[in-house]
Write a structure and sequence with these properties.
There is one protein chain. By secondary structure, the chain is an alpha+beta fold. The protein contains 4 helices and 6 strands. The longest helix has 17 residues. The radius of gyration is 17 Å and the shape is globular.
């Protein structure tokens, strides 16, 4: 990539012959949420192919199952004891590629009062075993939690 406007290589890569189904994608997404809540290293590792790549916008966060698990576990203390829930659903499934949308909501402990929430879009690619080999993550917080990113209110004219 020579310019920020150039498309990343994964936009052009040919899709593998292994096809994901919507049901298999939903099972993986549900397992992701469960692994996140439990912080069980085996459950986390089972999600990823050996050579998986975890992408954030403009950067690669982790390469390989071992490094991805280490990244998750490094954040464990920030999430264990937190009250949160998440739900993700496949929006599009094509071959080994899945686009998913979901939300993560954090609550005040012991209540259903929302502290913050995130809206997420994920691009996923899976290997022949149904493990994620590419994970591209984009997210945005609620406007009331990130006022500098909020859409201006319309005047009542």
């Amino acid at each position: 990539m020579t310019s920020l406007l150039d498309q990343p290589e994964w936009h052009h890569a040919a899709s593998a012959s292994t096809a994901m189904t919507r049901d298999a994608a939903q099972e993986w997404l549900d397992a992701y949420v469960t692994a996140w809540k439990l912080y069980d290293e085996r459950a986390i590792a089972d999600l990823w192919s050996e050579d998986a790549v975890w992408h954030y916008p403009f950067q690669i966060r982790a390469v390989g199952r071992e490094e991805i698990v280490a990244q998750w576990m490094s954040e464990r203390d920030a999430f264990i004891g937190e009250s949160f829930d998440a739900g993700y659903h496949p929006v599009a499934v094509e071959g080994d590629r899945v686009v998913a949308h979901g939300r993560t909501v954090f609550y005040h402990p012991g209540s259903d009062r929302v502290v913050t929430a995130y809206d997420n879009i994920w691009f996923l690619r899976f290997d022949h075993l149904g493990r994620c080999s590419e994970f591209h993550e984009w997210y945005a917080g609620r406007p009331e939690d990130e006022p500098d990113r909020a859409v201006p209110q319309r005047s009542a004219d």
